[in-house]
């Protein structure tokens, strides 16, 4: 891994509909442009992402997606952060920023939710994507959200029952994240925080397949916990605000884009078949299945991602 980069430029993209999106650039000013597409939704883009990128070869663009990180308004502060906050809005932000920074095309580097957002961007703007490097790959389709918020309840019944017990009796059992989201938007901050704790406890359970839960320290921060839970359930409750075939029905648009996909076989945050079918449909895609239960890349996954990014440094834009 490389040392974390210090940014050489930071800025704010004013969207015109109430959001101010934080971005920063690091690495080499004339390096291969790379966009970090963080997960969550709501995790924010930390300097950790830059440790995968050679600072002598990449111009790394970190963006905190709407409502997250250093962008304003923050979902942990106000419900207004969820307004004008859809996948289409995030894609439009990336495009405006790309044009503003004078970038013709960039490598997309994303994980988890960031893989969905990267793929959604790529099928809409294939000429602007040099390569895809994605881990914990998923597409946030209806059946994947159902897997995360219903099927896994068969694997962890006690923890799932605790999540269900946090919901009001009239909640729609067919859409657990949307039911949680309504509590997270409650006027009573105690109700909202209780819902955030319940959701994040389920996230912690899913992130640890076997053995005792390893709680994520980031959920100890009340503002992060609330903002993260609000954004995740907002997007999952609406199936990423995309038709089910928004990505998989348009893969023909990105058949000429090289891609490296990394998945833990027992990463139960989404079905492995999703990544398998993506790779099967993309002739230039490589699927690397890591034999562990991590939702993060893990040591083997980190090695694969580093090698892929080293390979794509200096890659040409499609058609060039």
TrEMBL record:
**Where is it mostly found?**
cytoplasm
A molecular function (GO) term: aminopeptidase activity
Localization in the cell? Cytoplasm
Taxonomy, superkingdom: Bacteria
Determine if Repeat is one of this entry's keywords: no
Q: Which reaction does it catalyse?
A: Release of N-terminal proline from a peptide
What EC number(s) is this enzyme filed under?
A: 3.4.11.5
Residue ranges occupied by any AB hydrolase-1 domain in the UniProt entry: 33-296
Question: What InterPro entries does the record tag this protein with?
Answer: AB_hydrolase_1, AB_hydrolase_fold, Peptidase_S33, Pro_iminopeptidase
Going by the UniProt record, its keywords in alphabetical order are: Aminopeptidase, Cytoplasm, Hydrolase, Protease
What family is this protein classified in?
Belongs to the peptidase S33 family.
The record's annotation in PANTHER family points to:
PROLINE IMINOPEPTIDASE
Which protein are we looking at?
A: Proline iminopeptidase
Gene expressing this chain: pip
